[in-house]
Amino acid sequence: MWLATAGATAPVHAQGARRTLLVVGDSLSAEYGITRGSGWVALLEQRIVKQKLPVQVVNASISGDTTSGGRSRLPALLQQHRPQVVVIALGGNDALRGLPLDMTQANLTAMVRAAKAAGAKVLIAGIAVPPNYGRKYSEDLVKLFGTVARAEGTALVPFLLAGVADAANADELFQPDRIHPTAAAHPKMLDNVWPVLRPLLR
Question: In CATH, what class is 19-201?
Answer without folding.
Answer: alpha beta
